[in-house]
Structure formats: structure tokens, C-alpha cells
Here is the input.
Amino acid sequence: MALISDDATSRLAFSLAENKGVYAVLIGSGLSRSAKIPTGWENTLDLVRRAAEARGIGPQPDWAAWYRATENVEPNYSTLLAELATTAAERRALIQAYVEPTAQEHENGEKIPTAAHKALAQLVKSGHVRVVITTNFDRLMENALREIGIEPTVISSEDALSGAEPLIHARCYVLKLHGDYKDTRILNTEDELNRYPDAVNTLLHRLFDEFGLIVAGWSGVWDEALRTAILRAGGRRYTTFWLTQGAPAERAAALIAHRSAILVKGTNADGFFTQLKNKVHTIAESRLESPQSIELLVGMVKGFLGKPEHLIQLDELIAQETKRLTENLEVLMADMPAKPVSHLITTCEQLVEGLARVATVLGRWGKDIDHSLMLEVIKALLSFAQQSSASDLTLNKMRMYPAFLIFNAYGAGLSRAGRWETMNKLVNYSLVLRSSPTRVAGALFWTLAFEASTKSVWKNLAGYEQFSSPLSQRVCVLVSQWADSFLGAAHNAKVQFARFELCCALNQTRWDSARRSNLFQHGADKVVVGVLAEDREVFEEIRNELVGGESTPAFLKAGFKTMDEVFLDRLFRNIQSHFQPS
Here is the structure.
């Protein structure tokens, strides 16, 4: 798929889009780093500096090294904080300087919500995220939510938890495990961080058991009570995604293994959450199907085909998918003039993929129960296409594109099965159009005729500029992407599509006698038939099959208009004469 790849961010985006509100986000100090709020380690080094200065020690090039040499231990945040501030109120005042911006810092854009906080707030606004768990004292997350009109339920103490509205009713829960920097009850020292109140542990157990988890900016090394809560929760109803810049520390790796988490490597929090928000909202906007859903759909269709008693269910399933597709297409097409045509093309392809794969399956294995089903799908999509009142030819072609793709997908499946008679029925089926005389399907959807008036549109697709028939090449690529649904071993998807495209081109001779005459003139202009005329290997394989090959009698017997072996031979000679010498 053009939009959805195998990366973890895309997988998470689909899961968020399809399971609104079932993921909790756990954020640590790393998320606020780009806001110039120091991390825990940076705070620790600053506390080392302050403690040293209190003893009359001058500046040092490496405060951590100085502390190790002086104290014979690693710098410890809790120990240093206890040395500099003996009461909770003093500790709160000390922390406030680290997280609250001065007037100058605010003017410089420091210590205010980052791109990550803002993107996460947008995911809350759209309902895809409802719970944020944070070890941070700052208010960046709450501020980002309030900036877009969301008042979160903030839990920063056991008292706040006991008086809060139930989780199920809250639009957004912000659970501040270590408190708020303006509250003297913030948890700072190692002893304070070793245990949570029972009510907090109960809530965490529920969250870690019932929700998926997105971890960002938290090392997983400290905060023993939080580590214990994660390890204590055995259930994993949804996946855990863990954002990390490099290899996780050993203690974090134990948590990752316990949650069977998927690592998202090599991106910072701002980039990750911005990309995630964009992908989730794009999926929601166009209602794309996930690859897993498509596989399930194809599997169901194959199962129904093998059991005649399930034909009613098959009919209903295809009708439901067609209805779903047309509804999603309406959403996409509603603002067509505002979107680049390339966006419309690729999004149409993504929306159609599930039903197109079904069409390839029915074409190969349908055994004639499929033909009326697929004609109904094509007619439904044509009806959708003709609901437009736009005069723009390109926009109208875009509305026709889904029906065109289904037609070619079904044809590729028929080609793979060698179902010539059904293919002939398909290309000669009469379709009633609102704005033009009745047309046979093969003439209406023949790729070269379909693209003729809008070829520049298809040439604008990256990588298709050099082809004389770019749409033909594009559909061939799509059929190749759908091949695992219907093709089987030792078969070339390009050959299946080219064979079907050739049948549509040959059917054109019924309507274009001048074109037929050109085939019998030596040196006449090449009769272009898309992929067949641009790929010598495909050309040779199909010619050997249809000219004097085993498939020739069945192909001609199927009823393609006025064709015989002499006609086919001259057609292939005409095309061959225009290939460059190898």
C-alpha cells in the first residue's frame, strides 16, 4: 500500500484508528527535553554543581567525573536532592525552577508544549487516546490540551484520585504519578519512588491490563514503583510500543520483554508523535483498511467459495464491502477540488484494495457463481461515479477509477484461470451510462481508452513519465501487488494482466473497423495494447501461448469477435515490428 508500510509507526497508527481510546501513553522526562526542560540526569548534574558550590568547590569540566572521584559512587538524584532540600516544600521550590519558564524563556519558546505534546493533544481531541500517564512534574501535557479546548482530569495525588470522575466517563485522564511541581507532595527521593498508594497501584494494574501502551521518553531504569506495576500486570490485551533512540538499558529491556513490546527506534518524540498523529488522521479521514483486515476479508471469501451452502453469505459480504467502499469514496471525493490528483489516485487505490483482491479471487476460483456478483459491484461503482455533476473531465475520471480497478482486478483473476468464456462475457457486457450511449464494459474500461483524454494525469505519477501508456503500467503494478491473493506459484502477474488487457483491445475491433484494417497493412502504426507493447518478455510469452499454442483453440472458441489464428498472428507481428532490436 502506498500509505501503509511495515514500519511500527504505521502499525500503531492503524491500531489507534481501529481501536479508539484503548491505548494509554506513558511519557517520561525525555518527552519534555526539546522544550528545554532538563532530563533527570541533567537535573542530577546540576544538583552536583549546586552541592559542590555550597562546599566552596569551583567550576569543573565534568561534574559527574568529579562526583565519582570525590564520593566514590555514581551521582544519585535522590541523595543530592535530600542534601540540598530537606523538606518537601523546599524540594518543590527547587524543582519549580527547572520546569516553569521565566518571561525570557517563554518568549524564546522554551519550557512550553513541544510538537510531541501538541500532536498527542490532537490524538486526545480526536478520541484516539484517552489516558496519559506521566512521571513528569511539569504541566506541558495539560497546557497542550487546554490550548485546544480540552480540560483534562488531572490526577496528581491520592486525594485527587479518590475524588475524580470515573475513568470511563473522562474524555482525558492525565495521571501524574510523581505529582505536580506546584504541589508539595511531589515524589522525588528514591524512598518516595519505591512505592505508590494502593489506589494508584489498583488504577495502574487496570490500565496496564486493559489498555495498550505507548512508552516515550521514559528510560525504564528508575521509578521502581512504576517498574513493579508494569511487571505485576500480566495481561496484554493490546500491543505495547516503546519509543527508543538507541538500544534500551538492561532494566528497560526486561520490561520490554515482559510486555512483548514493539520497539520504535531512531526517531525523537516530536517526530514520532507528529508522524503518528498525521497517519492516524489520514487513515481516519479516508477510512483505509488495514492489511490484516484485507487478509481476513480475502480468507472469508475463499472459505465461502469452497462451500456452496455459503453463497448467500458471500453475496451479503460483497454487498457490504461495496457499500462500505462507496461510503468511503464519498468522503474522499467530497473535497476533490482541494486535493492533488495524485493524492486522489493513490487513496482510491488504497480504498479499493480489499474489494479488488476479492475480485481477483472470484475471477480465479468463482466457477461462474462470481460473474453476476462482480457485475453488480461494477454497476454499483458506476452508479457512484455518475452521481457527480462536475464538468471537469479529470475529476469525473477519478470517480470512475474505482470501477475501472475492480473490472481489471476481476479480469486478471479470469486470465489466471483461463476462463475465456467468462472473460468474453465480461468485456461484452452492456453498461447503461447516464451521459452517453450504452457501452460494453471492455470498451469503457480498456486502459488505453480510459486514459486517452487524461493521459497527462497518469504521467504525473512518479516513475510513469516515460511510458506511452502510463495507466496500463500503473494497473499492472497494482495487480502485481494483489498477486498473493490469487496468483499461486510460477505465474507472472504482469502476464495475467497483459493477457486480459489484450482481450479488451481485441474486443475493440468490434467497434473500430479502421483499427482492425491497420493490422493488415505492412508498416502500419503500432496497435498499442499497453503492457504487451512495452515488455518484450511478456509479449513473447503471450504470443507463444495464443498463436499456435495449447490455449489457442479455447481462446478463439470463447467468442472474441471475428478472430482467428491468422488475425492473431498478424496482430503480434505488427506489435513485434515496433520493438527495438535486442
The radius of gyration is 32 Å. Residues 287-576 form one domain. The first helix runs from residue 8 to 18.
